[in-house]
Amino acid sequence: MITYLLKSTACLALLLFFYHLVLEKEKMHSFNRFYLLVGVIASFLIPLATITTYEKIQVEPITNEVAQTFSNPIFTDNSVNIIQENPINYTQIAIYIYSFISLVLLFRFGFNLFKIIRKTRTYKTIGHQKAKLVLVDDKILPHTFWNYIFINKDDYENKKIEQELFTHELTHVTQKHTLDVLLIEFLQAIFWINPLFIFIKKAIQLNHEFLADDTVINQYKNTFQYQHLLLNKATWNNEYYLASNLNYSLTKKRLTMMTTQSSPTKILLKKLAVIPLLAGFIFLFAERVEAQEKQEIKEEPIEEIVEDVSFKKEDFYKSEIYKEYFYQNIFITSKDKNGKK
């Protein structure tokens, strides 16, 4: 089990390293979303794969001649009084501690999910295209969970929310980004001991923002104005756990991505590079099993050897050599016409 966890962690670390080094810099955010999700699942499955190698071994035949030797048994009294102690099972204790922490994290995950659902039923909701606007009293920026967009009630009624912000949040709704967040949060609660899930979660959420930003820029064609809008909203508070928010990780990396121009050929080559990467990880982290193929050396009976030669057994029995051997100790008596022997 420990070997499996180490292989899974190493595989996830290399996948994440390849993402930050090669894929994240290009404008292929939909592919990167797929890569990150599949990479997490692949890190669990690749160590379970097996590569079987075959090795031929020669096995000597078992003869019917068995030499048996018997001797009178000798009985000795070696009885010793053994005092049994119950050692402490540290492995079982570690499993209990690990399971307890996982249950606590799962409870926190479920409680935060319950709080968001409760807000959708507590406050007024309004239909807006493919989403539902939840008008809350909190002074917040728009946040998205599933098909709900949480916005400040006063800002909505006074029409202080820019259309770019609505487009940004609608992208989270239509592309179902909440599914990715819920999946990674659940896995992080189970495999909390693996610190890489913190980084993979940040990479997934940042890629969601890349996707939403790209949609806004393509629709409104004003990158500078949108960047200025985000910078003005950067200091707003976010209290909605599990929800996608506008000012998540508003760093230089995110602002630079808005003006990045990517070559289609370069993007295609980087996508194709993922195939040998996954194949190499399978070869590196898969379990190797050596299967021995037995090659038995057979001893043919004498009768089979006789059948293999150029003549048959019947011809052998009729031969002069066999007759001389068969009749060598026989005496023949006969009588003449006069009755004499």
TrEMBL record:
Keywords per UniProt: Membrane, Transmembrane, Transmembrane helix
Keyword set includes Coiled coil: no
Segments traversing the membrane: 6-22, 34-54, 93-114
Taxonomic superkingdom: Bacteria
Peptidase M56 domain sequence ranges: 25-257
Protein name per Swiss-Prot or TrEMBL: M56 family metallopeptidase
Naturally occurring in which organism (per UniProt): Polaribacter ponticola
